[in-house]
């Protein structure tokens, strides 16, 4: 895992073949610290690789897994737009980060699948996100048997937003479009979208009205 700082914001490279653990979690947390301090721009993560069963077996303990899951959750809730560009086989950490991103760009050779360990698929929170985003019917074969999604299948099912023969160029274009969408307003809308998956209309109405009121007040402040 490595971080490069470019004009459009930090770029993190993640090898999905590595075992989940404190090092991965620390690198992702460091990225979150950096972008929160910057307060503007976009966050780009490039992912590829899938762990072998040996790599999964090398995970120290469930505490190490918990640190990774907390880091991914923090990434998922950043106040800046997050972009993940995925290529080749993507499992493990690569699988988790793709499903946690706002904007997802796939190379044409993408094969997306959860890691397999022992007698079943690795039961991390990537499976939770997959079911949330596809529903049980759409996710069942991958959750139970680790069946992969090709780039075309991922696009058709909404797991990625674009399949590109030139992911780097597509990321740059997305970054230019998303520069204005950062800060608390993005975080609020993302949370409203998360909550809409389980809240009733009546329970959600107050939160949406509060967000509308905030938006109107901020718009008037900007006009002054």
From TrEMBL:
For this entry, list what GO says about its biological process: fatty acid beta-oxidation
> Which InterPro entries is this protein grouped with?
ClpP/crotonase-like_dom_sf, Enoyl-CoA_hydra/iso, Enoyl-CoA_hydratase-like
By its UniProt entry, which Gene3D superfamilies does this protein fall under?
2-enoyl-CoA Hydratase, Chain A, domain 1
Where is the secretion signal located? none
Gene Ontology molecular function terms on file: catalytic activity
Enumerate the PANTHER family for this protein. ENOYL-COA HYDRATASE, MITOCHONDRIAL (PTHR11941:SF54), ENOYL-COA HYDRATASE-RELATED (PTHR11941)
Protein name per the record: Enoyl-CoA hydratase/isomerase family protein
